[in-house]
Amino acid sequence: MAYRVRVHRDLPVPMPDGVVLLADRYEPVGAGRAPVVLIRSPYGRRGAFGWAYGRGFARHGFQVVLQSCRGGFGSGGRLDPLGDEHDDGLATLEWMRGQSWYGGAFAMHGPSYLGYTQWAVAPWAGPDLRAMAVQISASQFRDAAYVGGAFALESTLSWTTLTDGLAGRFGAAAPLTAPRMTRRAVLSGRPVAELDLVAAGKPLPFFRDLVAHHADPATPYWGKRDFSAAVAEVEAPVSMLGGWYDVFLPWQLKDYLTLRRAGRRPRLTIGPWYHVDVRHGRHSFADALTWFRAHLLGDPSGLREPPVRLHVTGAGEWRDYPDWPVPGMRAERWHLQPGFGLSAAPPEPAGPDRYRYHPAHPTPVIGGPALLSASRPRDQRRLEARRDVLVYSSEPLRAEVEAIGPVSAQLYVGSSTPYVDVVVRVCDVHPDGRSMNVCEGVRRLSPADGSGHPRRVEVELWPIGHRFGRGHRIRVHVASGAYPTIARNFGTGGLMEADMGAGMVPADVEVFHSPAHPSAIVLPRVA
Questions:
Q1: Is residue 75 part of a domain?
Q2: pLDDT band, very low/low/confident/very high, at 166 (cuts 50, 70, 90)
Q3: Is residue 416 part of a domain?
Q4: What total number of domains does the chain contain?
Q5: CA–CA separation, 133 vs 251, rounded Å?
Q6: CA–CA separation, 150 vs 490, rounded Å?
Q7: Cis peptide before 16 (omega within 30 of 0)
Q8: DSSP 142-207
Q9: pTM of this prediction?
Q10: Do 28 and 158 fall within a single domain?
């Protein structure tokens, strides 16, 4: 049955430090003390959120508490992104348990930052947490902010610009203005530390914190913002939904594997989606609704077996599997070959290939995972024509090649400077010549990564579930930039050079492929 919904607005929720957060409660009329779905958001609690989440779940018999995080949309205090969600979330649970309408069971729901707020409290939430539905999110965002050690400039700047705009003059239009303002900033030529002044017209504390604290997980800054170490303690059933082109997918899958090692059996769905792709919204709600009905209302009719469902791109097919990585997957090496070939055969003797990366003219990126961009696959031929990108292609495939699982690259690289990025991308080349990106990754090198010549470099790429069709080619890019997805590497070890024209050190890069130095991409082949 569809319940009539009554909304209780602006409920005050006190925090231990005296700050008051506001929440709306959606009540399914006639359902009594029904289980609660708790959603904590920095993006507001009205409009689309209220309609899709509040009324959506309440019509199906759940109470919904939709709360605005600290510092936005009526809630007091100052937004310190990621920093207060543990304490504020636990205080909200304490408040909720003291309400007369609370019946003793709740679930948590939400994508992206809303998923992070779930991980921030789940290990400490207690037995009345009966289920979680986490979409396009992870238990820590540090590794996505410094992917492979390289600063994820576009995603971090666009998100901080977005949250500032939501609370400021742009309001609901901020999702449209933030990407445009970010693009203007990264093309301005200003130092990284000043790009927030171009994008938002003022300093953005969270952006500057990310620049200052870098990728070191041992700093106190990240200590209160990283909940990955406690994921194994979560006993509530977890349903995860992600996208092959989502910016958080690698770390979402690490959370999945942590739960599996702890003996849990989470549900996993990965579709052909990117982070702001509206297509996954319908799937997310349906996924969460069946999960919550099973674990809070005792109706398992919507559960599926086996629990892992993947969309295989290139084939356009959904597949069900018992686990991730999928059974029968084997790592298959495709070696870089002389003459810019690519094959599973061992490499022939040959000298290295070379290119020069210059930070004054950083290698650009076309597509690839980014937070607020349409990260669907795009034709890479314009990028492949550049002299600072090496391109290795297989012969046309005589049979289909299906790759489902983690992807990595093992390269032997020499560089004139120890500070250099290694960007690796896998593409599917269609018979008509289109070269469509499938997955990619980056590794930022420093003297700490060794001083040999060449250095053996491991690069983790995004996982894939893809079929390379018969007559297609598998193609691999090797470069040292993907701007503005990652900040340019100045060749000095610094990130915030004040003078963009001076102090830059170009990198003369060599990529080796020989029996002694067998550079390869490692694909997860499935028979």
A1: yes
A2: confident
A3: yes
A4: 3
A5: 16
A6: 12
A7: no
A8: HHHHEETTEE-HHHHHHHHHHHHHHHTTSGGGHHHHHHHHHHHHHTS---GGGHHHHHHSS--HHH
A9: 0.97
A10: no
